[in-house]
Amino acid sequence: MRVQIGKRRPTAVVVAALVAALGMVLAGCGGSASGGAGGDSTVRWGTKQIQANWDPIVTGSTGATIYLTPIYESLFTVDGERHVVPALASGYEYNAAGDQITITLKPGLTFQDGSPVDAEAVKFNIERIKTQENSALKGSYNNVETATVVDPLTVRLDLGQQDYQIPYLLAVRGGMLPSKTAAQADPGRLNTAAPVGAGPFTVASYDPESKIVLEKWDGYWDAANIKVDRIEINFGVDPSTLTAGLQSGVYNWAQLDPQQADEAEKAGFDVLASVDRHWGIQFLSLNTNKAPFTDPAVVEAVRYAVNPEEYSTKLGFGLAAPAHQPFPEGHPAYVSALNAEHPYDPAKARDILAKAGYADGSVSFDLSGMAIQSGQIAEILQEQLKAVGITANIALLDQANWGKGYYSKSVAASLFGYVGRDSHVQALTEHYDAGGVLNLSSPTTSPEFQEALKAVRATPIDAPDYEAKLQAAAQAGYEHGSTVALYSLASVVAKDESISDPPAIDGYQSWKGVQFTPGTQ
Amino acid sequence: MIKVLLRLPSARIAIGVLLVIAVITLFGPVLAPYDPLQGSDLTLAPPSAQHWLGTDYTGRDVLSRILAGAPLSIVSTLEVAGIALVLGTIPGILSVYLGSIFEWVSLRLIDTLVALPFLVFAVAMTALLGNGITQAMIAVGLLVAPLFYRVARAATLTVAQSQYVEAAVLAGASTGWIVRRHVWAKVLPPIAITLATTLGLGLVVISSLTFLGIGVQPPTPTWGGILASDLDYLPQKAYAPVFPAVIILVTVLAFNMLADAIRDAAGQSGRVLVGARAAKANRARRVAA
Prior knowledge:
The structure holds two protein chains of two kinds.
Chain A: H1 2-39, E1 42-46, H2 65-68, E2 76-78, E3 84-86, E4 89-94, E5 100-105, H3 119-131, E6 144-151, E7 154-159, H4 166-169, H5 180-185, H6 187-192, E8 201-207, E9 211-216, E10 230-234, H7 242-248, E11 253-256, H8 258-266, E12 270-272, E13 279-286, H9 296-305, H10 308-315, E14 320-322, H11 346-355, E15 363-370, H12 371-386, E16 390-397, H13 399-407, E17 413-418, H14 424-432, H15 447-457, H16 466-480, E18 483-490, E19 492-495
Helix pairs in contact in A: 9-11, 14-15, 14-16, 15-16
Chain B: H1 2-7, H2 9-31, H3 62-97, H4 100-115, H5 118-129, H6 133-160, H7 163-170, H8 175-211, H9 223-231, H10 242-265, H11 267-288
Helix pairs in contact in B: 2-3, 2-10, 3-4, 3-6, 3-8, 4-6, 5-6, 6-8, 8-9, 8-10, 9-10
């Protein structure tokens, strides 16, 4: 008996020691996680999205601007009131006719590869936007005809028509400037492997589709305002693991789906989700050059068949609102009259189809979309259309394959979402102008929109009638276009309390002034 | 063998479960209390008297979706097992009898297939042949075939080298006659075991593929697809993935239990088992007497 006890004692000691060691290891893990956040000011960012294109000229998605702005700086940027403020450029001047803008660059700036930020680089990139085959900004730059180097720090843009929107076009999304040297040497490499800009962070390492590590770059013109040392963005993270990732300290910054916002907030994280920061509108793009939408009656029927309310209540989790146009309420281009124009009315939709000679169930089409983004929306839309006798065959694809069909305008209909544009007029041209990335019917555009577009472009942004003209263009565009808005949604970011709030700027994730408060984690 | 099999409690449980699954597969869509594609305003509702397993994100009845998803999930599983069975067993048996060239070529081909990871191959095949469940199942079936080939070949080899078969050959029996008369009976039990295992494996594969959204488009209900979409709403319904997961698990478990039971009941081990049981019963009777 005694012998047995003697034998057992060491076992108990070993178990106790193992438990203690395990405890220390676990404590060590926890310690390093919180120490990392407080010590070296690293933003550890988790997202379900995957960013494949790193050349701002090639990137189709404006929502992806948040991944690009740390690397690339634009000619201009915007402040909290959405006024254009200098960035790489120090200022601009219009000629009297408003069809020529001269931009002056700040002296002595370089890109992260040491090459100069000069007029040549601006001209080169604008020409790339207009000519490079995979450029996603072609439509946005429709009205910019030529770029001319006046002197090394001055570049002049000649415009097709009077246009006071150009400074906004050159701010943030449309004006991010990649290094000329890098783009000239190998545009493919710039896009998929080694992005080089003049922004606050340089690329330290990049694993395609998985992780990018960015380090603070001291050569940035406003480096004194950047307090974050490092940003690590983890792509393709399963959204259901993001909140747990925040809790375990793997991430301290995460882009969440709306259904996770509540959980993250309850777990004690700051949740940033309001339309004054990042909003998105989900919409249905119809291609009026493909059957069955070549018949305007079918387009009209779809507009009445869609019930925006259902998307916002089922998929929004309190962060969404029904949309009848591609702008959220409160946006300068928001037209309240559009809300009443196509109310949800399935009976009327059926009536329109019947009058146009379609038998019940005879209208059908393939509904494209991104599996990662549009699955649930597609299911609801399919039901709503079925209720009026239209068959939508859901054909979701991965991001890359979906993009091929959508951007080449070869699909009949697709679900997509967008996050607005820095230039309000650019948001309109994307949806309704020839060459607009979101205009699935491109090159089709309407004379009504073109006329209203011309008028708003010719109006200086600070003119008293600017908003009225902007809204007139927004209304003409929507009424004669082929975008059917579904719902608006505030994008959700949850962050650790130790990171201070970033500046609230519509659609722009600025890292200026963002800092870590030590000891709060 | 079937009689022996039914004496095993594990076999009776497995067959019972599989019968239930078979009924769900055949009549699932009819048994579903609601339209599995019809949403309602009652989204992400917990289980209740109206909706036994609750509702999903567009307000569809989860029980109805699981029932309606059974045919696609189970039929695809049968498809995988069927393709693998035909493509594996027949060349496996023939490799022993059709001469060295066929043997060498088929062995190399099978070795090649063994080297390919089947989930990745299935994904590649759907990319190549279009995003359909049948394409994926053909790919998986092709890659599971080596399992049957190896088993059938090994079993045939032992028979082919036995003295009574050699005696039959000397007596002038044809290859076809030998295969029908002697080989089938010996090869069948291991094939049955492999088939049951493959059915379990096939369901895991099909569930994995539909979980990843490969081969199906929404709103088609599949067990893997229901599981995947439930994971998006964990904060609202943390228990929701349990329902599709349990039905997948139970079905796979039943197939594996059946495979075990067939192994126990078949051949020498089956005779030993039956003998041991009979002996035990006799002992008990003697003790009682």
